[in-house]
Design brief:
Elements lengths: L1 H24 L2 H8 L4 H12 L3 E4 L6 H10 L5 E4 L6 H14 L4 E3 L3 H11 L4 H4 L2 H16 L4 E3 L17 E3 L14 E3 L7 H11 L50 E3 L5 E3 L13 E2 L2 H9 L5 E7 L4 H21 L3 E7 L4 H7 L7 E5 L7 E2 L7 H10 L5
Parallel strand pairs: 1-2, 1-4, 2-3, 4-6, 9-11, 10-11
Antiparallel strand pairs: 5-6, 7-8, 10-12, 12-13
Helix pairs in contact: 3-4, 11-13
Length: 400
C-alpha cells in the first residue's frame, strides 16, 4: 500500500503546481484594470477562452440568466451550475427548466449534505434562521456545497454587480483571484472569479434581457428583484436596494459597528480603545458638535433643525458613509442652511450620554433633531447615500 500511494501523491502535487500557475502566470489585478472598460460579452469571452471546460457559470435563478445569454453569444462551449438548497421558490425551479430548454443545456445542480441538513432541522426546526440568523443555514445549504463544487474548477463566473448593495459590493472587479474559495489545485490563488456584470446597473441588465427575449423568473413580475431561498426572499418597495429583500428580519447592526467594536483585546488580555488614523468630516459643510452643544441639543435648545450623525472615526461603516454625508451637507448648505444644520458628533467618546439622550444604538447612528423640541428621530435605514437621506429629511418636515 505504501509503495502504491506515493506516485499518486506526487501526481497530485504536480497537478496542484500546474493549476496554481494559472493564478501566478497572469497578473489578474492588471487584467482587471485592463478589462474594466470591456463589455460583459468581451469579459465572458475572455473567461471561456482562457479556461475552457474548467470554468463554470454560477446561476441563481434570477437576473443572472444574463450570464448564460452572454456565454451563448460567444459561440463557445460553456458550463452552468446552480445550488439547489432545497428551499427555492417553485418559480425558480420552473425557470431552471425553461433555461435548460431555451439554451439546450443541462445545468449542473449541486445539493447540500443531507445528513447536515437533517441534523440542523431536527435540532433547530425548519425556520431557525428567523431566530438566530441565516448564517448557519446558508453555510450548510449554500456555502459548503458551493465550496465543494468549486474545488473541481479553475475559475467561476458570477452575476455580482457594484450597484446591488452600495457599501458592501462597491469593490467588485470584473476579474480577480477569488479571496474566499479555492479551486482544483487547492490553496490560496487557485481559483479565478469573473464578474462580467460588475459595471452594469440593474436597468442595463434588464434592458439586455428584454431585448434578447431571455426567459426570466416569474417572481420578478411580482416585485422580487434579488431572489434566493423562499423563506428568505421578499419583494422590495420602490427605491429600496434590491438586496433589502433578503434576510430583512436581521438587525441592521450587521452593517454597522457595535458600541464596543472599538475595543481591542491585546495579547496580555487587557483591553484598549481602537484608534483611528484621522477624524472624519474634517473639512466641508458638516458642523462639529461639542459635548456642551450635544447636551444643549438633547435638552431641546434648538434654533434650527439638526441632522446629526453619531459616529466613531475607527468604524469602517462610518468611514464608508463619509463621502455621501459630505455630499448631502453640501447640497443642503446650498438650499437649507438657514433652517437646517448638518452635523457630526463623535459619540464613541461620550457613549453613555449619547445612548441615553441621543438615540445611539450602533455606529453610525443618524438622528434628526427638530427645532424647539427635545424629540430625537432616528434614521431607520441602512441606506446612507445622499439622495435617500435627503428624501428622508424632507419627508419628516425639515422646512423653513
Amino acid at each position: 500500500m505504501g509503495q502504491q500511494s506515493r506516485p499518486v501523491r506526487v501526481v497530485s502535487q504536480r497537478q496542484a503546481v500546474r493549476a496554481r500557475a494559472v493564478a501566478t502566470e497572469v497578473n489578474w489585478q492588471q487584467t482587471a484594470t485592463d478589462m474594466d472598460a470591456k463589455s460583459p460579452l468581451e469579459i465572458m469571452d475572455h473567461a471561456l477562452e482562457h479556461f475552457g471546460a474548467d470554468v463554470g457559470i454560477a446561476f441563481s435563478g434570477a437576473e443572472d440568466v444574463a450570464l448564460i445569454e452572454y456565454a451563448h453569444l460567444t459561440g463557445r462551449p460553456y458550463r452552468v451550475f446552480s445550488l439547489d438548497t432545497g428551499r427555492l421558490n417553485p418559480e425558480t425551479y420552473r425557470l431552471f427548466d425553461k433555461v435548460e430548454k431555451h439554451y439546450n443545456i443541462r445545468i449542473e445542480y449541486t445539493f447540500p449534505d443531507a445528513e447536515k441538513v437533517q441534523d440542523l432541522v431536527r435540532t433547530k426546526g425548519l425556520f431557525s434562521f428567523y431566530e438566530d440568523g441565516h448564517t448557519e443555514c446558508c453555510r450548510i445549504r449554500k456555502v459548503q456545497p458551493l465550496r465543494k463544487h468549486l474545488t473541481g474548477l479553475k475559475a467561476w463566473i458570477t452575476g455580482q454587480r457594484k450597484d446591488q448593495s452600495p457599501g458592501t459590493r462597491n469593490a467588485v472587479p470584473v476579474v480577480q483571484v477569488d479571496p474566499a474559495f479555492t479551486g482544483i489545485a487547492g490553496g490560496p490563488g487557485s481559483l479565478i472569479k469573473y464578474n462580467p456584470l460588475s459595471n452594469l446597473t440593474s436597468a442595463e441588465v434588464w434592458n439586455f434581457l428584454r431585448v434578447m427575449d431571455v426567459p426570466v423568473n416569474d417572481l420578478h413580475a411580482q416585485g422580487y428583484i434579488s431572489i434566493g431561498c423562499e423563506p428568505c426572499t421578499r419583494c422590495v418597495l420602490p427605491n429600496q436596494l434590491e438586496r433589502e429583500g433578503r434576510w430583512w428580519w436581521e438587525d441592521a447592526a450587521a452593517k454597522e459597528c457595535g458600541l464596543h467594536s472599538g475595543n481591542v483585546v491585546k495579547a496580555d488580555g487587557t483591553v484598549e480603545e481602537r484608534k483611528a488614523e484621522r477624524d472624519l468630516w474634517i473639512e466641508g459643510s458638516v458642523a462639529a458638535i461639542s459635548k456642551e452643544q450635544a447636551r444643549a441639543l438633547a435638552a431641546g435648545t434648538r434654533e434650527k433643525d439638526t441632522l446629526m450623525v453619531l459616529y466613531a472615526p475607527w468604524c469602517p461603516f462610518c468611514q464608508a458613509m463619509e463621502p455621501e454625508f459630505s455630499k448631502l451637507a453640501e447640497q443642503l448648505a446650498a438650499t437649507s442652511s438657514s433652517f437646517l444644520t448638518v452635523a457630526k458628533y463623535q459619540a464613541d467618546i461620550d457613549r453613555e450620554f449619547s445612548t441615553e439622550h441621543l438615540g445611539l444604538k450602533t455606529f453610525p447612528t443618524i438622528v434628526f433633531l427638530p427645532k424647539n423640541s427635545s424629540k430625537v428621530i432616528r434614521y431607520p435605514s441602512e441606506r446612507r447615500d445622499a439622495d435617500t437621506l435627503g428624501m428622508w429629511v424632507r419627508s419628516i418636515g425639515a422646512t423653513a
